[in-house]
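The protein record passed on below.

***
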Amino acid sequence: MQGSNKGETKLNGKGLRIGIVQARFNADITDALAAACLAELEALGVAAADIHHVQVPGALEVPVALQALAERGGYHALVALGCIIRGETYHFELVANESGASVSRIALDYRLPIANAILTTENLEQAVARQTDKGRDAAQVAVEMAQLLATLS
């Protein structure tokens, strides 16, 4: 993770069940996000059998799938993966704002950590520059927050 976080915790994903929802829109970016996230989850000790990875058409559909996974239960954390690149219309703001707010609402409604790695960038170059780090960060956030909530229960 970038920056310095005093009180950093040792991340251990052993025994955690993680759900991942990946948007297919901008697939080159979201595939790279997913690959980095999955590799980091494995490095943190999350068993491949304990990861449920689904795909949806785009960022606006991510929250619906997250909600379905949350309702299904059994997950310690979820991860949202997507990529929204600014265009020439207001559509960017709509998709970015609505997907972000919906992801947060589901996390709060279900008291379930959701690492939001839906990239919102000005251009493709910014997305490419962030795809690996943000995928890895999302895995770390999911594990850390799952650990934290376990201690608070």
Summary: Helices lie at 27-43, 62-72, 91-110, 124-152. The longest helix spans residues 124-152. Residues 23-49+79-146 form a domain with the Rossmann fold fold (CATH 3.40.50.960). The longest strand covers residues 77-85.
